């Protein structure tokens, strides 16, 4: 287990609960910037060329029975 050292005057709740999570979020909200919402535009089919999958990932998926066996 990791030894967590915290230097603060606030009590430490390592398990966390909804109240402490909401407090953390309220303190961080001013640091978060939401991007401007933009409308999605359709993509021309000629620009879609498929998906590139690394060989190691393809071998892993090929070995899983849920994917095509």
Structural description of this entry:
It is a single chain. The mean pLDDT is 76. The protein has 69 residues and is mostly helical. The protein has helices at residues 18-28, 55-63. It has two helices and no strands.
Brief summary of the model shown:
This protein is mainly alpha-helical. Helices cover 29% and strands 0% of the residues.
- SSE sequence, one letter per element: HH
Bulk shape? flat
Task: Please count the beta strands (DSSP E, at least 2 residues each).
Answer: 0
State the distance separating the first and last CA atoms.
Answer: 40 Å
**Helix share of residues?**
25-40%
Strand content: under 5%
Helical segment count = 2
Task: Report the uncertain regions.
Answer: none
Largest sheet: none
Q: How confident is the prediction overall: mean pLDDT? A: 76
Radius of gyration (CA) equals 23 Å
By secondary-structure content and strand pairing, the structural class works out as: mainly alpha
Question: Any key phrases for this structure?
Answer:
single chain, 69 residues, 29% helix, flat
Explain the layout of strands and helices.
Layout: H1 18-28, H2 55-63
């Amino acid at each position: 287990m990791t030894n967590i050292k915290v230097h603060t005057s606030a009590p430490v709740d390592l398990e966390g609960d909804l109240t402490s999570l909401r407090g953390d979020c309220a303190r961080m909200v001013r640091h978060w910037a939401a991007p401007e919402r933009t409308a999605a535009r359709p993509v021309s089919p000629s620009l879609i060329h498929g998906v590139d999958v690394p060989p190691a990932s393809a071998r892993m998926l090929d070995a899983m029975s849920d994917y095509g066996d």
